[in-house]
Specification:
alpha+beta; two-stranded antiparallel ribbon; about 20% helix
Length: about 220
Amino acid sequence: MTESAASRVLAPCRARIATEADLATIPAVLAHMNRLPQPATVACFMASLPRPFEIVATTSVSSAQPAFGTRSPRLFIFFRRVTISVVAEGMGAPLVEFAEYSDAFGRHNSLKGEVELPSRQPFAPDAAYTRVRYGSGTSCGFCHRNEQSMPHTLGGFVSSALRPSIDTVVSLDFVRTLPAAACTSDDDTSARCQFWHALFDYGDVRQGAFDPTIETLFR
């Protein structure tokens, strides 16, 4: 994509690129979000992520952050310890969801969290965990099994990791065709257009894959 008004709007966000340390834990990611130009949007956060990274895109609607049809699949962005999920449109568009992996949690488990952007105030270190709390556990536990509290993680809960069903996964080549429909002119600064510019304007995006031994999410 060539430079446009959308990418120029995101330039201040790109000036504060996340480091590896900023992406080591969920609280570290929230601290990075607090340092972005405020009020930071999902697109601003995406623009601040270091490249290269890998993604998996899915049209699955079986999530608290469902895809919005084939024109706005849910995207999983992979870093070494934290996987981030975002979607361009629909009820899940303001959300950034997290899964943090650690040997301490077990190979097929992850620590879950979620925040909404933009935020009215800086995020507390435990904000992603408190947002998903539900009763004695979390709303993530409706789909992710074996949920258990992890007190040393600021009150977070670990549960089974899931990957999208293969019949809902769409290729990176297909995802690359989506900005043309979202951005109708070079001066388009809509949230949807900014989302795609934030994904593709700032370096190499590669096709990723989940560990095939992780349990599959029902469609």
